[in-house]
Amino acid sequence: MTIYELIGKLELSLKNKGCTDTPITGCYASDMLSDVLANGKEGNLWITRQTHPNIAAVAAIKGLSGIIVTGNKDIDPETLEKAESEGIVILSTGLQTCETAGIVYNLFLTDKGGGKA
């Protein structure tokens, strides 16, 4: 599954420019940057409520496919600029983190070409 496909399935809002053809290999949900650094896997989609610029740096370091910010949180322009410069797509949803992770997980279970969530 790609970010573009996921945008359509979850009705996500694309918040910055970036490659939406990026494949998603799974997902990781956490609001602790140190946790994502320790446990996130390359190609994962990160689901979080964090919005500060450091999320872009963490995603770039780990080679994540993108970030979904949950709960309709406002995202600082500085964060969006940093993510764009790092090639990280930021998406948003009004759903909470648990709901978003559950839906993404179920999509991966039913997607014939998807990886493990």
Description:
- There is one protein chain.
- The protein contains five helices and five strands; from the N terminus they run αββαβαβαβα.
- With 117 residues, it is of the alpha/beta class.
- It has a single domain (3-110), classed as 3-Layer(aba) Sandwich (Udp-n-acetylmuramoylalanyl-d-glutamate--2,6- Diaminopimelate Ligase, Chain: A, domain 1).
- Strands 1-5-4-3-2 form a five-stranded mixed beta sheet, with helices on both faces.
- Strand 4 (66-69), helix 4 (77-86) and strand 5 (89-92) form a beta-alpha-beta unit.
- The N and C termini lie close together (11 Å).
- The model has no long low-confidence stretch (mean pLDDT 93).
Placed side by side, the strands forming the largest sheet appear as 1-5-4-3-2
H and E order = HEEHEHEHEH
Q: Radius of gyration from the CA trace?
A: 12 Å
CATH class call: Alpha Beta
